Amino acid sequence: MLTKTACLFGLSAISTVNAVQYGYNHVPVRPDPALIAANFKDVDIELLSPAFGGDRQSGFKNGTQGPTSHEDMGMSPCIIEESDLLMTTESFMERVAADNDYMTYHTANFTSEEFRSFPYVKLSTTKGRSRSNKLRLFVQASVHGNEPAGDESILALLGKFDNDPEWATKMLKDTDIVIMPRYNPDGNYYFQRILASGLDPNRDHIKLARQQTRDIKKFFSEFAPHVAIDMHEYGASSRYGNYVQAADGLFSAAKNLNINQDIRELSEELFAKNIGEDMVKAGLRWEPYVTGSTNSTPGYVPKFDEAGSDVKIGRNAMGVTQCVTFLIEMRGIGLADQEFQRRTAAGLTMASSIIETTANNAEKVLETVEGGIKDFVESKDPIVITDYTEFSTREFEMIDATNGSVVKVPVQFASTTPTTANLTRSRPESYLIPVAWSSLAERLEVSGLEVKTLDKPWSGTVEAFNVTSAELSRSYYEGVVLATITTETKEKEIKLPAGSFLVSTRQKNAGLAFAALEPENIDSYASVNIIPLNVGDEYPIFRVME
């Protein structure tokens, strides 16, 4: 049975065959023709961010730079030539933070692969440590460096807070917010999707191949938000028969079934509903986030997969920490500076909607998320290893490229709201990791899991896996050769030396352990060949059932 995640992987794998160089991996600019562009006029939304209040970088017009430089946004220059600096005397983020007592400008204690800094702003009316009953909300953007409406809309969000004290006071009464506009500053500098090292940062949330990913993961885990937002852009020029996407914004909650059901339902029934309504009120169009193969053959029926459940991707990696998480996508990749006001306004509208929903329903959100965490930690339900979806017909709002009209088009749609569990397994009480595999324990700790180092030898009965099949892919995917693993389980007695590791599943981030340590999962350490396996091997991670 073809799973949702398998479909998404297939699409991702196809995209990796494009050759890359060190830096400046620009995508072709494909501007909207007049017929299509007529549907994306400016909207009446004020944007108080650097790109709309001053000069833009010269390369923005031809798709080789974003509008706002590293320094103008508020990032201190590191290894950057003096000639590259535009206006560094007063950064936007520092200035806005300095003007508001509830904002604090920070620079993270880690850097990018090319030593660029990570500025962020914390918004809180609570001095010192946050009250235990306040909601924590985390906002990140520009995971992919060539998606400028993401970070610009978040800068506009800071501008909105700065410009509307009454709104800010209401939003922050019961919430603390951390805003990190640029997750991938090297990608922003080169105006490319990938990290300086060439890997996609949004496919590194389980294998943690890059130090930058680990540093941000630890930063996120320490803040431990109740609500998280991840801002992106999607490709504007993709053709599906005679049609292109009409949506100003696509969005998706985290879909992994190991997220507590109450949290998932809150995400879909309250947050997603409000995002859609707020987009319509703003005069903007929206649809659920989907991927699909392009085909310009007239009469082609689009076939769309809704956002998948794979934990290697940011939305689900954040979601399985048991928080409300949303992927937000604005139409824009490949447009350069075309329609940028509307693109940024769409991002601001969706991000503001999530913040307003959080603040206006603070008690409900806090009770649901905290209660969901408790229920998840105590749950005796089976865990979900793989899942699948099925296609049905659904109408999707699109633009007829032959005449520019916005129409409802019947498409084949694989809904993941929710997915259907395929392979499930009894939840272990803990996982045992031999001391020789200490690198796995380190990865789990970076992901916010508590890992106990055993000070004495361990002996007892465990559930172990024998590998029954192991099939390697024929090409690299994000620096690894993927493996598809099947296993059979058995009980056995084992002895492990002192220094081995015990990972309890009775903790809120245990969903990350399920994804990483259950070998059949599409993102497991076995699947990404961190743990290489052959048929007949015993998997070196053990499940303690009692």
TrEMBL record:
PROSITE patterns in UniProt: PEPTIDASE_M14 (PS52035)
MF annotations from Gene Ontology: metallocarboxypeptidase activity; zinc ion binding
Phosphoprotein keyword on record: no
Domain Peptidase M14: from-to ranges: 81-358
Keyword set, alphabetical order: Glycoprotein, Hydrolase, Protease, Secreted, Signal, Virulence
Subcellular location: Secreted
Cellular component GO terms, alphabetical: extracellular region
Signal sequence coordinates: 1-19
Secreted listed as a keyword: yes
Primary localisation category: secreted
Pfam families the record matches: Peptidase_M14
InterPro entries xrefs: Peptidase_M14
Active site: E329 (proton donor/acceptor)
One GO BP: proteolysis
Cofactor: Zn(2+)
Job description of the protein: Extracellular metalloprotease that contributes to pathogenicity.
Family from the record: Belongs to the peptidase M14 family.
Protein name per Swiss-Prot or TrEMBL: Carboxypeptidase M14B
Species, as recorded: Fusarium venenatum
